[in-house]
Write a structure and sequence with these properties.
GO molecular function, one term: peptidoglycan lytic transglycosylase activity
Signal peptide: 1-21
Number of domains: 4
Pfam families: PG_binding_1 (PF01471), SLT_2 (PF13406)
Strand order of the largest sheet: 4-6-7-3-5
Domain Peptidoglycan binding-like: 351-394
GO biological process, one term: peptidoglycan catabolic process
Structural class: mainly alpha
Number of helices: 16
Length: 406
């Protein structure tokens, strides 16, 4: 019996090894037949291509991969939706604020020059730097070409990563970095500002004047590249990102969203006030802004400006943009935590939220896609459904709500 079990194990290992060898062979053919022609058309030499791709080894440890011809990721798991309050863990946020305040003094002249040039406040640049790479202290150990090559071959978004792989090869061809310097995250993001290669080619700038675009070890180039990125996407100089507010109970949370803007004066006339008790800045009163309630009625509420949505160009998450804006405020003014508390929300799996989103889509609601993440379109769709069904709008998913929306 023991020998039989051992024989079965040997057979399984042999089959697994054969499958891996077959997949590796497919990958090598993909690089030659698909990626090399794309790289050559983009001006990449054969020498650069071979030097960058190295041993052409797949990395099947990368999350979210799919085998060629399939659509389901290899490692399926019940991903728990993380309640918004967890995103603002004070240990992490407080560390970024504390270090950011020290660095604001250390790099004051550079940050002031960048604000004059790009209009982006130093506190925002610092908050992004801190969030992305802990001010350059986070170890980024992965081989960018192995990551991008693998994801170009077998990710859920192959076209995106094929473009990014070609851009990374162009970086080497142009002398921006050597293959050894091209370390990335699991997602292929590079350097201290965590730019994808296309973002590097479009937005990296030389601020320290050494003739190089260096987002790996140059702090001025890192800060300048973040500022240039935000400027490109429309940062409005002189406007804030937003204000924490109190929203009266008779104002529906379904008014949320960047397509339902009003002048701040009009929001104030509806009874929305700054939770700090201070008035809205006079220069903001006749400018458009938007209601944003990331946890519906279960957390803080905000009136945000177009600059909030510029921050979302860096990362599409509402919570990311809110984190950056809030951290930046605390870096510059020493302000404390949000005044309103994050309410307790049910523990849910993303698959449960996605199922609810599909039901709402079937009822004609625009939820922004059934991705298991309650963005503003999902939140306000929930509020609309609740209102139409005689419920008090909360604009946030719960177990009871998911059971009711069928």
């Amino acid at each position: 019996m023991v020998r039989l079990a051992a024989l079965v194990l040997v057979c399984i290992l042999a089959l697994t090894g054969a499958a891996r060898a077959d997949l590796q062979g497919q990958y090598e053919r993909f690089l030659e037949d698909t990626m090399w022609p794309k790289a050559r058309s983009a001006g990449v030499s054969r020498a650069t291509f071979d030097r960058a791709m190295g041993q052409k080894r797949l990395n099947t440890d990368i999350p979210g991969l799919v085998r060629p011809g399939q659509t389901t990721p290899q490692r399926i798991r019940q991903a728990e939706f993380s309640a918004p309050a967890r995103y603002f863990n004070e240990n992490n946020l407080g560390a970024i604020v504390s270090q950011g305040r020290r660095l604001a003094s250390q790099h004051a002249s550079t940050l002031a020059a960048l604000e004059r040039r790009y209009g982006v406040p130093g506190r925002i640049i610092l908050a992004i730097w801190g969030r992305e790479s802990a001010f350059g202290r986070v170890d980024i150990p992965h081989d960018a070409f192995q990551v991008l090559g693998t994801k170009a071959f077998m990710s859920t978004r192959p076209d995106l990563f094929r473009t990014e792989l070609v851009a990374a090869l162009q970086m080497v061809e142009r002398g921006n970095a050597t293959p050894a310097q091209m370390k990335s995250s699991w997602a292929g993001a590079l350097g201290q500002p965590q730019f994808l290669p296309t973002s590097f080619l479009e937005h990296a700038v030389d601020i320290d004047g050494d003739g190089k675009l260096n987002i790996w070890t140059s702090v001025p180039d890192t800060l300048g590249s973040i500022a240039a990125y935000l400027d490109h996407f429309g940062w409005v100089s002189g406007r804030d990102w937003g204000f924490e507010v109190s929203v009266p109970a008779d104002i529906s949370c379904s008014f949320e969203g960047p397509d339902q803007g009003l002048k701040i004066r009009d929001w104030a006339a509806m009874g929305i006030t700054r939770i700090s008790g201070r008035p809205f800045p006079a220069h903001e009163m006749d400018l458009e802004a938007y209601l944003m309630m990331p946890a519906g009625r279960s957390g803080p509420a905000f009136i945000v400006t177009p600059n909030f949505y510029v921050l979302k160009q860096y990362n599409e998450s509402d919570l990311y943009a809110l984190f950056v804006g809030h951290a930046g405020d605390r870096i510059e003014w020493g302000s404390g935590r949000f005044k309103a508390a994050w309410g307790r929300v049910d523990t849910l799996y993303r698959s449960e939220i996605a199922a609810m989103q599909r039901v709402l889509e079937g009822k004609g609601y625009d939820v922004g896609g059934a991705d298991g993440l309650p963005g503003f379109k999902t939140r306000r769709s929930i509020g609309d459904w609740q209102q139409k069904n005689g419920r008090q709008p909360t604009c946030f998913p719960s177990k009871a709500l998911i059971g009711a929306i069928r």
